[in-house]
């Protein structure tokens, strides 16, 4: 899974509209600072360090800090890939999306962005109730999260809609984890983004 995320994230970028800042293979300068990864050994973690990160290092970071430590590995297997991918993309918001979904399904969990024993147990119960729909429900909630971000922050719309007007990377990424029958049609997508101008 981590290698797929690295491939999906791509190489080095430093987009001024991206709050993550300098990024390579999806690993941001902020993550590298938090982990103390001064690859240039100049006493500062900056864009130059991001440029030096290798695929293998990115995979290791993802597995340790975005899959095992946040306890995504303890969720039902059908949810692991989509929550993991979203955690790489949005951090604790990935867990909040899951927790809100669990609340909607009648589970009593805090929406705190941390996977603990209560979230794990609630997720297991909810999955038993809807094993064939839980990953789709999460993916749809994830897609809606991206739309809300783009609604609120016009500079982020380029991640949700291409210059040509089609589905942008965020939406395509969410739909990679949703059954085809729940993908938005072009007409549905155009109707959803019509207010963006």
UniProtKB/TrEMBL annotation:
Chain segments annotated as transmembrane: none
Xref: Gene3D superfamilies: Chitosanase, subunit A, domain 1
Domain Peptidoglycan binding: 93-175
Residue ranges occupied by any TtsA-like Glycoside hydrolase family domain in the UniProt entry: 3-91
InterPro entries, alphabetized: Lysozyme-like_dom_sf, Peptidoglycan-bd_3, TtsA-like_GH18_dom
Protein name: Uncharacterized protein
Protein's organism: Sagittula stellata (strain ATCC 700073 / DSM 11524 / E-37)
């Amino acid at each position: 899974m981590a290698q797929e995320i690295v491939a999906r994230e791509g190489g080095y970028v430093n987009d001024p509209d991206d709050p993550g800042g300098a990024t390579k293979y999806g690993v941001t300068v902020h993550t590298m600072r938090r982990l103390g990864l001064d690859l240039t050994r100049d006493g500062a973690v900056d864009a130059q360090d991001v440029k030096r990160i290798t695929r293998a290092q990115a995979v290791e970071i993802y597995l340790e800090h975005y899959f095992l430590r946040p306890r995504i590995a303890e969720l039902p297997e059908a949810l692991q890939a989509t929550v993991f991918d979203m955690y790489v993309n949005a951090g604790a918001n990935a867990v909040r999306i899951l927790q809100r979904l669990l609340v909607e399904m009648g589970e009593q969990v805090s929406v705190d962005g941390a996977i603990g024993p209560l979230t794990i147990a609630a997720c297991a119960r909810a999955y038993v109730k809807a094993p064939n729909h839980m990953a789709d429900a999460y993916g749809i909630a994830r897609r809606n999260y991206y739309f809300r971000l783009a609604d609120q922050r016009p500079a982020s719309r380029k991640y949700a809609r291409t210059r040509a007007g089609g589905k942008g990377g965020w939406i395509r990424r969410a739909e990679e984890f949703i059954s085809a029958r729940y993908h938005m049609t072009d007409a549905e997508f155009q109707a959803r983004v019509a207010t963006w101008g």
